[in-house]
Amino acid sequence: MSRSPEVRLADVDEPMLERLLDLATCDALPDDVTPPLGAGTGWNAERIGWFRAYHRSASAGLDVPASEKSWAVLCDGNPAGSIRLKGIVDQTAETGI
After folding, report:
1. What values do phi and psi take at 79, rounded to 5?
2. What pTM was computed for the model?
3. What DSSP assignment string belongs to 28-42?
């Protein structure tokens, strides 16, 4: 009988940020996870810098001016992606994966 994978959320600290970046650069198209920055269409220094800055600011939480929080999605302890929650003006929230 096969078992279901363990799926959980983890805060994005610096080590987790690097694991998410490794996952993104190996398994995601840059246009799927970053805006079109820098020269060319692939992963470049500007996109990698944006990715790090975005996750650092989004790890601050919902009680700061950005009002956004992101978590790593772990599957059996390994990053599989990230999810975010953003507070918006009318006291509702927006999610993104």
Report:
1. -60, 135
2. 0.82
3. S-HHHHS---SSSSS
Per-residue buried b or exposed e for 1-27, using 16+ beta carbons within 10 Å of the residue's own CB? eeeeeeeeeeebeeebbebbbebbeee
Task: Provide the H-helix boundaries in the chain.
Answer: 14-27, 30-33, 45-58
Whether residue 72 is predicted with pLDDT greater than 80 in this model: the reply is: yes
- DSSP label at 61? B
Does residue 2 lie within any of the structural domains?
Answer: no
User: Domain total for the chain?
Assistant: 1
- Both tokens assigned to 95: 């999610």
Query: Domain span at residue 16?
Result: 7-96
